[in-house]
Amino acid sequence: MTHAELPRLGQGFYWQDLHEGQAFRTFSRTVTETDLVNFISVTGMVEAIFIEAGYDGGAIQGRPVPAALTYTLIEGFILQTMIQGTGLAMLELTQQIHGPVLVGDTIHATVTVTGIRPTSRHGRAVVDSRIEVFNQRGEQVMTYTARRLLAGR
C-alpha cells in the first residue's frame, strides 16, 4: 500500500456515510478560567460579567462564560471528529440559549442529522443537524441547528 492509499486518521464523514436520524454524542469538556480569559481576550468580549469575578451587576451567580465560547468548544469537537477534511462550509446557524455555562462546568453535546440534500455540483450535499448542549447535571444549556456543505466520495 502506498503512502497516499493509507487511511487518514481523524478523517470526517462524507455525506454518504450519514443518514437522517443518525445521532452522535461528543466528548465532554470542562470549561476553565483559562478558556474564558483566552476567549474574551481574542474576541474583545470584555463585558464586566466576564472579566470581573463576582460582578455585582450580573444576573448569574458564579463565573459565566459567553455563549459563543460554549458554541465554539462544541464546534471544535464536531470539526475534529465529524467533519475534518469533509466539511466545506457552514451555510446557516440558528441558536437558542437555555441556561448559563459557568467556569468549572463540563459540557457535551448530541448531534442529530436532520436532513441530507445532495447538490448538483461535485457530489456534495447540504447536511442539516440539530445540536443539543448539556452541562454535567444533564441540563440543556444550548440548542442550535446547523446547515453545512459536506464533501462526497
TrEMBL record:
Domain of life of the organism encoding this protein: Bacteria
Domain annotation FAS1-like dehydratase: ranges: 21-143
Protein name, entry field: FAS1-like dehydratase domain-containing protein
